[in-house]
Amino acid sequence: MSEARALQSSLLTVGAWVVAILASIPLFSVLYMLVFKGGARLAPALFLELPPAGFETGGGFGNAIVGTLVMLLIAAAVCIPIGVLSAIYLAELNPDGKVAKWSRFLAKVLTGFPSILAGVFIYAALVLAMGTYSAIAGGIALAVGMLATVVLTAEEAMKTVPRKMKDAALGMGCTRTQMIIKVVLPTGLPGILTGVILGIARAAGESAPLLFTALFSNYWLSSLREPTASLSILIFNFSSMPFENQIELAWAASLVLVMMVLVFNLLSRLIGRPKI
C-alpha cells in the first residue's frame, strides 16, 4: 500500500511539474520578446518626450506614463474608501444579512465582469454628461474594475482578525466603531493593502474601459477634464501602425507597463507576507 501511494505521489509530482513548465513557456517567451525588443529601445528620452507623429522618428511616451499614474490615483481615491467601508459592513456590521449575501454575490460577479462594459457604463453616465473624455472618467472606470477585488480581499483580511481580540476590545468598553478602527483595521491592514495593490495592478493594464472614457492624447496632461494618454492605449494604437518607430515604442511601452504591474504584484506579496 505504501509503495502504491509513493508511486502515485511521484507521478502526481511529475505531472504537476510538467504542467507548470508547459504553462511557463508562453509566459517566458512573451517576457523574452519584451526584454529583447522593448529593452533595446529603452532610454531616458522615452520618459521625457511626447509620442511622435506617423513619419517622425524618436519620441517617447512620458505623457502616457503620467496619464496612467494619474488615472490610477483617481481610481484608488474612489475605490479604496468605498471598498473598505463595504468590507467593514460585510465582515463586521451585518455579515449574515440578506444585503451582505447579495453584495458578496454581486462582488464575485463583478470580478468576471468584462472591463469594456465598465467603460461603456461610465461613458453613458459621465462622459456624455461632461461632454468630453477625461482622466476623471478613465479613473472612475478603472475604479469599477478594482472594486470587487478590494471588497472581497479586505473582507477576508478582516475575518482573519481573531475573535478574542475583538471581544477583548468590546469587554474593555470600546464601542463597535472603536473596535473596528483600533483593532480590526490595524490588524487586517496588510491583507487590505494587498487587495488594494492587486486591484491597482489589474487596473494598470486595462485598455478597453479607457477607450470609452479617457481616449488618448499626444500632449502632456494639463487638466483632469480632457482626453488623457495611457500606456495601454498607446500600445494599442502604435502596435497597429505601419511605422517601425511606433512599433518599437509599443514594445518599449509594453515592457514598462509589465514592469509596473510586476512591481505592484511584488509589493502585494511583500505586504501580505505573514510576519514571523
General description of the model:
It is a single chain. The protein has ten helices and no strands. With 276 residues, the chain is mostly helical. It has one domain: MetI-like (MetI-like fold, Orthogonal Bundle). The protein is globular, with a radius of gyration of 23 Å. The protein starts with a helix and ends with a helix.
Short summary:
This protein has 276 residues and is an all-alpha fold.
Shape: globular
CATH architecture classification name: Orthogonal Bundle
Q: Please provide the ordered H/E string of secondary-structure elements.
A: HHHHHHHHHH
Describe the sheet with the most strands: none
Share in helix: over 70%
Q: Treating each run of at least 4 consecutive H or I residues as one helix, how many helices?
A: 10
List the helices and strands and how they pair.
Elements: H1 2-39, H2 62-93, H3 98-111, H4 115-130, H5 135-159, H6 163-171, H7 176-204, H8 208-213, H9 231-239, H10 244-272
Helix pairs in contact: 1-10, 2-5, 2-7, 3-5, 4-5, 5-7, 6-7, 7-10, 9-10
What key phrases describe this protein's structure?
mainly alpha, MetI-like fold, 276 residues
